[in-house]
Protein backbone atom coordinates (compact mmCIF):
# COMPACT_ATOMS: atom_id res chain seq x y z
CA UNK A 1 0.00 0.00 0.00
CA UNK A 2 1.07 3.58 -0.58
CA UNK A 3 1.90 5.39 2.65
CA UNK A 4 2.06 9.17 2.30
CA UNK A 5 4.43 10.71 4.85
CA UNK A 6 3.75 14.35 5.73
CA UNK A 7 6.24 16.08 8.01
CA UNK A 8 5.44 18.70 10.60
CA UNK A 9 6.88 22.16 11.08
CA UNK A 10 10.49 22.79 10.02
CA UNK A 11 10.84 19.39 8.32
CA UNK A 12 11.44 18.57 4.68
CA UNK A 13 11.13 15.15 3.06
CA UNK A 14 14.57 14.08 4.31
CA UNK A 15 13.04 13.67 7.77
CA UNK A 16 11.64 10.33 6.61
CA UNK A 17 14.88 8.96 5.16
CA UNK A 18 15.27 6.25 7.83
CA UNK A 19 11.58 5.33 7.88
CA UNK A 20 11.31 4.80 4.12
CA UNK A 21 13.52 1.68 3.86
CA UNK A 22 11.84 0.17 6.92
CA UNK A 23 8.40 0.54 5.30
CA UNK A 24 9.72 -0.82 2.01
CA UNK A 25 11.05 -3.87 3.84
CA UNK A 26 7.55 -4.39 5.22
CA UNK A 27 6.14 -4.46 1.70
CA UNK A 28 4.73 -0.94 1.38
CA UNK A 29 5.45 2.03 -0.88
CA UNK A 30 6.30 5.05 1.27
CA UNK A 31 5.99 8.46 -0.39
CA UNK A 32 7.41 11.46 1.52
CA UNK A 33 5.30 14.42 0.47
CA UNK A 34 7.16 17.60 -0.47
CA UNK A 35 5.33 20.54 1.08
CA UNK A 36 5.56 23.98 -0.56
CA UNK A 37 7.56 26.27 1.68
CA UNK A 38 9.30 23.45 3.52
CA UNK A 39 12.36 22.60 1.49
CA UNK A 40 11.79 24.30 -1.87
CA UNK A 41 13.11 27.73 -0.88
CA UNK A 42 9.71 29.41 -1.05
CA UNK A 43 8.62 31.74 1.74
CA UNK A 44 5.32 32.70 0.12
CA UNK A 45 3.61 29.30 0.36
CA UNK A 46 0.23 29.10 2.08
CA UNK A 47 -1.65 26.42 3.96
CA UNK A 48 -3.82 25.95 0.87
CA UNK A 49 -0.65 25.22 -1.13
CA UNK A 50 0.37 22.53 1.33
CA UNK A 51 -3.10 20.99 1.36
CA UNK A 52 -3.02 20.91 -2.44
CA UNK A 53 0.34 19.08 -2.36
CA UNK A 54 -1.03 16.42 -0.01
CA UNK A 55 -4.17 15.98 -2.11
CA UNK A 56 -2.08 15.66 -5.27
CA UNK A 57 -0.19 12.83 -3.59
CA UNK A 58 -3.47 11.18 -2.61
CA UNK A 59 -4.76 11.47 -6.17
CA UNK A 60 -1.53 10.00 -7.56
CA UNK A 61 -1.49 7.04 -5.18
CA UNK A 62 -1.96 3.47 -6.30
CA UNK A 63 -5.23 2.61 -4.62
CA UNK A 64 -6.32 4.08 -1.32
CA UNK A 65 -3.31 5.33 0.66
CA UNK A 66 -2.65 5.72 4.36
CA UNK A 67 -1.90 9.40 5.05
CA UNK A 68 0.57 9.95 7.89
CA UNK A 69 0.82 13.36 9.51
CA UNK A 70 3.46 14.26 12.07
CA UNK A 71 2.95 16.94 14.72
CA UNK A 72 1.40 20.04 13.10
CA UNK A 73 0.87 18.03 9.92
CA UNK A 74 -1.66 15.88 11.76
CA UNK A 75 -4.00 18.66 10.69
CA UNK A 76 -2.83 18.34 7.07
CA UNK A 77 -3.59 14.62 7.16
CA UNK A 78 -7.03 15.36 8.59
CA UNK A 79 -7.66 17.99 5.92
CA UNK A 80 -6.93 15.25 3.39
CA UNK A 81 -9.54 13.07 5.11
CA UNK A 82 -11.99 15.97 4.85
CA UNK A 83 -11.29 16.53 1.16
CA UNK A 84 -10.99 12.86 0.11
CA UNK A 85 -12.98 10.87 2.71
CA UNK A 86 -13.70 7.98 0.35
CA UNK A 87 -10.23 7.86 -1.17
CA UNK A 88 -8.18 7.10 1.95
CA UNK A 89 -7.50 3.79 3.66
CA UNK A 90 -6.97 5.75 6.85
CA UNK A 91 -5.04 8.46 8.65
CA UNK A 92 -2.15 8.02 11.08
CA UNK A 93 -1.37 10.91 13.42
CA UNK A 94 2.11 10.90 14.95
CA UNK A 95 2.72 13.03 18.02
CA UNK A 96 -0.22 15.35 17.54
CA UNK A 97 -3.89 15.94 16.87
CA UNK A 98 -5.90 17.74 14.18
CA UNK A 99 -7.18 21.24 14.76
CA UNK A 100 -10.85 21.86 14.31
CA UNK A 101 -12.47 24.24 11.84
CA UNK A 102 -11.52 27.89 12.10
CA UNK A 103 -8.26 27.43 14.02
CA UNK A 104 -4.87 28.66 12.74
CA UNK A 105 -2.79 25.77 11.44
CA UNK A 106 0.47 26.27 13.38
CA UNK A 107 0.67 29.79 14.82
CA UNK A 108 2.99 28.55 17.53
CA UNK A 109 6.02 30.84 17.67
CA UNK A 110 7.13 34.32 16.66
CA UNK A 111 7.01 35.25 12.99
CA UNK A 112 10.17 36.98 11.74
CA UNK A 113 10.50 38.40 8.23
CA UNK A 114 7.51 36.42 7.00
CA UNK A 115 8.53 33.04 8.41
CA UNK A 116 8.36 31.08 11.66
CA UNK A 117 11.92 29.90 12.35
CA UNK A 118 12.76 26.97 14.59
CA UNK A 119 12.77 28.55 18.09
CA UNK A 120 15.59 26.47 19.51
CA UNK A 121 15.30 23.62 21.97
CA UNK A 122 14.06 25.58 24.98
CA UNK A 123 10.34 25.03 24.27
CA UNK A 124 10.97 21.32 23.71
CA UNK A 125 12.97 20.44 26.82
CA UNK A 126 11.73 17.31 28.56
CA UNK A 127 9.88 14.37 27.00
CA UNK A 128 9.75 15.97 23.53
CA UNK A 129 13.51 15.87 23.02
CA UNK A 130 14.86 13.61 25.78
CA UNK A 131 15.81 10.86 23.33
CA UNK A 132 17.74 13.17 20.98
CA UNK A 133 21.50 13.39 21.44
CA UNK A 134 23.23 16.76 21.42
CA UNK A 135 24.56 15.97 17.96
CA UNK A 136 21.08 15.11 16.73
CA UNK A 137 19.72 18.34 18.14
CA UNK A 138 22.41 20.35 16.37
CA UNK A 139 21.71 18.55 13.10
CA UNK A 140 17.98 19.17 13.44
CA UNK A 141 18.44 22.87 14.17
CA UNK A 142 20.87 23.27 11.27
CA UNK A 143 18.45 21.60 8.83
CA UNK A 144 15.24 23.18 10.16
CA UNK A 145 13.28 24.97 7.42
CA UNK A 146 11.49 28.16 8.55
CA UNK A 147 7.74 27.78 8.02
CA UNK A 148 6.16 30.50 5.84
CA UNK A 149 3.75 32.80 7.66
CA UNK A 150 1.03 31.90 5.15
CA UNK A 151 1.29 28.30 6.30
CA UNK A 152 1.68 28.85 10.04
CA UNK A 153 -1.20 31.33 10.22
CA UNK A 154 -3.40 29.70 7.60
CA UNK A 155 -6.91 28.95 8.83
CA UNK A 156 -8.19 25.38 8.89
CA UNK A 157 -11.40 24.82 6.92
CA UNK A 158 -13.29 21.52 7.34
CA UNK A 159 -16.49 20.92 5.39
CA UNK A 160 -17.29 17.22 4.93
CA UNK A 161 -18.55 15.22 7.89
CA UNK A 162 -17.68 12.00 6.10
CA UNK A 163 -14.19 12.59 7.46
CA UNK A 164 -15.42 11.10 10.74
CA UNK A 165 -15.81 7.74 8.95
CA UNK A 166 -12.10 7.60 8.05
CA UNK A 167 -10.17 5.21 10.35
CA UNK A 168 -7.61 6.99 12.53
CA UNK A 169 -4.57 5.69 14.38
CA UNK A 170 -2.88 8.04 16.84
CA UNK A 171 0.77 7.17 17.51
CA UNK A 172 1.57 8.47 20.99
CA UNK A 173 5.30 9.16 21.49
CA UNK A 174 6.00 11.82 24.13
CA UNK A 175 2.54 11.33 25.63
CA UNK A 176 0.77 8.06 26.36
CA UNK A 177 -2.27 6.49 24.76
CA UNK A 178 -4.02 6.76 28.13
CA UNK A 179 -3.36 10.51 28.21
CA UNK A 180 -4.58 10.90 24.64
CA UNK A 181 -7.78 9.05 25.51
CA UNK A 182 -8.36 11.38 28.46
CA UNK A 183 -7.89 14.45 26.26
CA UNK A 184 -10.25 13.13 23.61
CA UNK A 185 -12.90 12.12 26.14
CA UNK A 186 -12.63 15.52 27.84
CA UNK A 187 -13.42 17.29 24.57
CA UNK A 188 -9.94 18.75 24.12
CA UNK A 189 -9.66 17.12 20.67
CA UNK A 190 -13.16 17.67 19.24
CA UNK A 191 -12.40 16.24 15.81
CA UNK A 192 -11.28 12.89 17.21
CA UNK A 193 -14.08 12.88 19.75
CA UNK A 194 -16.45 12.66 16.78
CA UNK A 195 -14.38 10.20 14.73
CA UNK A 196 -15.94 6.73 14.61
CA UNK A 197 -12.79 4.61 14.42
CA UNK A 198 -9.85 5.78 16.56
CA UNK A 199 -7.03 3.53 17.77
CA UNK A 200 -4.35 4.80 20.14
CA UNK A 201 -0.91 3.16 20.22
CA UNK A 202 2.11 3.92 22.40
CA UNK A 203 5.62 4.49 21.06
CA UNK A 204 8.44 4.94 23.56
CA UNK A 205 10.17 7.96 22.06
CA UNK A 206 10.22 11.73 21.99
CA UNK A 207 8.35 13.97 19.60
CA UNK A 208 10.43 13.02 16.54
CA UNK A 209 10.38 9.20 16.33
CA UNK A 210 11.31 9.26 12.64
CA UNK A 211 14.83 10.14 13.84
CA UNK A 212 15.08 8.07 17.00
CA UNK A 213 12.75 5.07 16.46
CA UNK A 214 12.33 4.72 12.68
CA UNK A 215 11.93 0.94 12.65
CA UNK A 216 9.40 0.96 15.48
CA UNK A 217 7.46 3.78 13.84
CA UNK A 218 7.40 1.92 10.52
CA UNK A 219 6.03 -1.19 12.22
CA UNK A 220 3.27 0.80 13.91
CA UNK A 221 2.29 2.36 10.58
CA UNK A 222 2.23 -1.07 8.94
CA UNK A 223 0.11 -2.33 11.83
CA UNK A 224 -2.26 0.58 11.26
CA UNK A 225 -2.87 -0.69 7.75
CA UNK A 226 -3.63 -4.19 8.99
CA UNK A 227 -6.28 -2.73 11.30
Automatic annotation (TrEMBL):
The entry's keywords: Hydrolase
Pfam families named among the record's database cross-references: Abhydrolase_6
UniProt domain AB hydrolase-1: residue ranges: 3-219
Gene3D superfamilies on file: alpha/beta hydrolase
UniProt keyword annotation of Hydrolase present: yes
Keyword Cytoplasm: no
GO terms for MF: hydrolase activity
Protein name: Alpha/beta hydrolase
Upper taxonomic lineage: Bacteria, Bacillati, Actinomycetota, Actinomycetes, Micrococcales
Amino acid sequence: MDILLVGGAWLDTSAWSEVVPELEALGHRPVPVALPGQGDGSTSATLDDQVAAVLAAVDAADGKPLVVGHSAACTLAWLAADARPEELAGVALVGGFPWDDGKPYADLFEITDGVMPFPGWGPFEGPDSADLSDAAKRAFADAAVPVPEGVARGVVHLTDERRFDVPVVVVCPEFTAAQARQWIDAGDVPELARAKHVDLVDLDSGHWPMFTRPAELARLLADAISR
